[in-house]
């Protein structure tokens, strides 16, 4: 693979109760463990960052395959939910749900475009076989 771009981030503090900053400074935030996991909450957490990245990346992949198919992407959206929990082996795992809305195309076309986007999206390719990803069309 020819790398076209590399993102870099630096984490400090106590991991999930710490701080993260990108090398260019465009992201510079405190992190907190969610209340649901016994933390104080009140700040971003890694799952929120992953959800935001996956939603944006998948939406770009969706728009790419839709353009190739000459499908109308007007009003399209992608919502990502990232869950975290014990994996049964002493560690933790993630589960993702991507909910896609393509209001300008019929459901069968939308489902096909979502399936195609799942093959194109780098986040989908990185997670395939590693975590459960559920795709839904609204």
Task: Report on this structure.
The chain is globular. A hairpin with a 2-residue loop joins strand 1 (about 10-15) and strand 2. The protein has helices spanning about 45-70, 105-120, 120-125; strands spanning about 10-15, 15-20, 30, 75-85, 90-100, 130-135. It folds into two domains: about 1-45, N-terminal domain of TfIIb (Single Sheet); about 45-135, GMP Synthetase, Chain A, domain 3 (2-Layer Sandwich). By secondary structure, the protein is α+β, with helices and mostly antiparallel strands. About 30% of the residues lie in helices and about 30% in strands. The protein has a three-stranded antiparallel sheet, with no helix packed on it. A three-stranded mixed sheet has the order 4-5-6, with helices on one face. The longest helix has 23 residues, at about 45-70. Belongs to the OsmC/Ohr family. It holds the Pfam family OsmC. This is Ohr family peroxiredoxin.
């Amino acid at each position: 693979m020819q790398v076209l771009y590399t993102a870099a981030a630096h984490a400090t503090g106590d991991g999930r109760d710490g701080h993260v900053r990108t090398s260019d400074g465009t992201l510079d935030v405190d992190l907190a463990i969610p209340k649901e996991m016994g933390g104080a909450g009140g700040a971003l957490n890694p799952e929120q960052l992953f959800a935001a990245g996956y939603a944006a990346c998948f939406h770009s992949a969706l728009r790419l395959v839709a353009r190739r198919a000459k499908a109308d992407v007007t009003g399209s959206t992608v919502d990502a939910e990232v869950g975290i929990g014990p994996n049964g082996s002493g560690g933790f795992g993630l589960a993702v749900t991507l909910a896609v809305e393509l209001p300008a195309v019929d459901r069968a076309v939308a489902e096909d475009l979502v399936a195609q986007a799942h093959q194109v999206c780098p986040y989908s390719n990185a997670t395939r076989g590693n975590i459960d990803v559920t795709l839904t069309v609204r």
